[in-house]
## 1
Amino acid sequence: METVTHLVAAGAPEEAVGMGRVTLKTVAEAVGVSRMTVSNAFSKPDQLSPDLRERILETAAELGYLGPDPAARALARGSVGAVGVVLTDSLEGAFLDPVSAAFFGAVADTLAPTGLAVSLIPAARAGDHLAARDLPIDGALVCACDVGQESVEWLRRRGLPLVFVDNEALPGYARVGLDEREGGRLAAQHLIDLGHTDIAIFTIDPSGAPGWVDDPTARLVNTVADERRAGAVEAISAAGLMPRMLTIEDNDEAHALPGARELLGGAAPTGVVSFSDDMAAAVIGAAREASIAVPAELSVVGFDDAPIARAVTPGLTTIRQDFRAKGRAAAEALVSAIAAQRESDDGPVPAADGEHRIAVPVELVVRDSTAAARGTT
Amino acid sequence: METVTHLVAAGAPEEAVGMGRVTLKTVAEAVGVSRMTVSNAFSKPDQLSPDLRERILETAAELGYLGPDPAARALARGSVGAVGVVLTDSLEGAFLDPVSAAFFGAVADTLAPTGLAVSLIPAARAGDHLAARDLPIDGALVCACDVGQESVEWLRRRGLPLVFVDNEALPGYARVGLDEREGGRLAAQHLIDLGHTDIAIFTIDPSGAPGWVDDPTARLVNTVADERRAGAVEAISAAGLMPRMLTIEDNDEAHALPGARELLGGAAPTGVVSFSDDMAAAVIGAAREASIAVPAELSVVGFDDAPIARAVTPGLTTIRQDFRAKGRAAAEALVSAIAAQRESDDGPVPAADGEHRIAVPVELVVRDSTAAARGTT
DNA sequence: CAACCGATCTATACCGGTACAGTAACTCCG
DNA sequence: CGGAGTTACTGTACCGGTATAGATCGGTTG
């Protein structure tokens, strides 16, 4: 029963000037009790008589004592009250993407009631600082970034509870991710159901040379992209069709539009499964340039159901990812990982059972960018 | 000269099992030197001979010592390496808004090279925890939220360096914000220049009753909204025209569309200055419903230049806020406030000069949602 | 030759709390 | 009336570092 109740002084902080810092000791001496009793007055009210507690709190307020110093408390208790989140190298980039920003918000919101704050961990080192090594945190989320990174390695070495999001987890750690493969399958199957027979996959491959890919069944480096690809290829192959695939380097406007032009440049497919809504929007843009009617002549499926999916004309048929559910799942997994570590502490098993893999479901949202293939009833 | 260099062991962490925690002491005893020397080996390399340092680092690596414990270091040094950001009550909401998400990203990115991590501070209390009081941080950004909040009050009492963003600052603290008023003026002036004479202001007023406002010159509660309103009213009045104003409760889709319908319902204005791009988009949507042509019959100006400004058809004329510049300015102001406090420390003046008010410039971006008023050359 | 110096390393005293194991007084019960 | 159980508080030992002021020593310097 840990019930902290701080007095909120009505007036000014009364900070007795000149007097050094006000600590437990200061208050203890003023009241004439031991340091420990003052500490308890703030952190464990049931450990002392109500009237003494009252007196202590009062004196503390007069002296300008604000309550336990967070840093000191963190050291003594062994827990900080914050968890880290490792995103990409460019935090700015991560937050420009509405999907990842929303995910982050959902994480923070889910964590808020537990009293945990969320700290962004810059992946890169800053001079001699490396946040993943130097920042006091109780655990961390590793999101959609290279697992081999120095930062991730440090988090691991520190023995922190970790949860991997949209990423292959290191062995022994929990993982939360979309059911990407199912998403890819749903997207492709939707086009198949509409009677399309020439379906192209438009995705990213940061490492490979951009352009048409010889073998769409070959793995991609980017895990997420690969899963979506695999799902689509599965569905297309199962329908007895041959998939085509064109990749670009990165999921941004600069790469997407040229890629989309190339996609439609030669013998244009009648259906496109895209890695993202942004890329799907680029395909629609390229189609407009080439006077290809969407959805009459070309059906386009996106992925994510980002805001742009609705903003674009025609509205994008897409695979909705419930970023809120993903954020919640990730936050909850992390909280329980932290709790588990606290339990076992020096207990025998660190995280042996923790091979949790949580798949967040996806859903097909049909809007106006897809229609039955020509020549189909 | 603080040059931390940690050994990154190639292999496994070699964590000597069973052995309790590995601390400075462990390493010191193993090497046969004092604790302090080991500490220096990690934190102040120039304080000991290179070869001894080498030996210490080696032994440390063997023992599985990871370097100074962040929490302990934070206590001893009096600085944590993280700053807080207070946003709205709903973090999720804040990150759903691309503008505030991008701002946050810019802050994080600017701070990254300084080694500071960014912690989100949930404004609401969680049980007995209140992040603003309990989280170890070196300073904080207070963004677009009620300054009277309990959280803000705690940050102040803790004596932390603070910077207020998009907000009136508490006395003595720095403030960073857009030049909102100028933005409002630019938006309205643009319509005036196009010959519009019936210009309506479409904005938010969380506290008031939604609907047409009798006196557009009366102050709004929301500071940002009020500044933009004031700017627009200034320009319109200066042109010898009478402004009209309609408010809605909140800047979201649920409120914006009905509000926009009402705006155009009766005698529709020929020009609208909106509080945000989202609301401007809603106006365009409502205009389409009512078969009012934009921009031929109705000119609409947004605010923010959020992604939706480009996504919508016709492209939105809007006031661009450089969220990157704003984020950078806020981050820099905070960093210097932290530095200043560290300097003065127990020095005489806490932040007397710090009445900095940094105005981030805005800019009119003309797209296709505005045109000359009918009957104008 | 004594005083002085910089380069290295050590000793001590915090930083500001919390955990845990008492201790003393007071109640309850057979 | 003796022992078990509470309640209310205190003492001590950390948590794991860092700052600061010495101590030690070979080498200068006037």
Note: The longest strand of chain A covers residues 199-204.
## 2
Amino acid sequence: MGRSPCCCHDAGVKKGPWTEEEDKALVEHIQKRGGNVGSWRGLPKAAGLNRCGKSCRLRWTNYLRSDIKRGNFSEEEERLIITLHASLGNKWSTIATHLEGRTDNEIKNYWNTHIRKKLLRMGVDPVTHQQLPPDQTNHDVNGAAAALLPEALLWAAAAVSLGGLDTGALMQAQVLQQLLQAIGSNNSTTGLIANLAAANTLLNSSSSIVPNQMNYLQTGYLCNTSNFAEQHVVQQQLTNDTSPGTSTFAAAERADQLCNTAASYNVAPAGDWPPAQEFGGLLEPMMELPGLCSLEGDSFWKDILEDSYCL
DNA sequence: AATCGGAGCAACCGCTCGAGT
DNA sequence: GACTCGAGCGGTTGCTCCGAT
């Protein structure tokens, strides 16, 4: 013989928002038992509540428990959720076990109302964490993002330059050129994506010789990596490879800021971008970096940058 | 001041899985 | 082994709040 049916379908069982009295009765009952709930099914009767056991469990686990953290999600928590979601999918309860004081329901709501939209704005599929195809990407024109990207690239280039040009310089230049062509291109979005894809291919084929700083272009720039969740890992790698106070770090950090800001905007098709700032004007603040010689003195870099910029 | 629409969130619904009979 | 139920989980709904018009 099986068990008796659940109370959830009983007529007269109260539904809807909980009152203060009900909350109090539930908390007092559970505290009286030393936090040991026992059977949720039998709880409502024992606690004097006209509620379904299921409803009581939900109210307790999602709202009344003392260890629940309140308030906004921190950046760190948001990052963790994205990373975990990339590997676990919609396993909200499993994700919740990695965030102290957060419930699965809260994380699920936060994902659906904040993170999901944010990823879509950035052209990232929130389900697969892959870059969305061009025709599904949000193409709202946003001049601010366009204005930031060239400068971000130059700062990133400065970081690369300061990190050393001994090996893979040619490869770096090619990648950079692809990226700058992507930005400067007056073609359709398809052209932009094609250029970025070419840059990606170069990066992927040259991981052994291109310095970590070069990954930077890939990680922050337009969120063009195949997996969004991996980006912060590489960014941290970059941060670990440099120290605060060094010129490389300063350049990389500036590029980071700009890329992050740009990535938070909707990226417009290249044809809609406003005229770019003068190359010289962008280059000027980088000349202040101690130890930077390549961008200024090395015509190799300067030529590439200028040529690409004029495309 | 009133109305409308969107965002955020608490709560419900329905399904799955494991355990009891 | 078959059946039934409880607990837990993810998806969805509907209420409330708030800003825009």
Note: Residues 1-6, 16-17, 39-41, 53-54, 57, 61, 90-93, 104-105, 108, 112 of chain A lie near DNA strand C (CB under 10 Å from a C1').
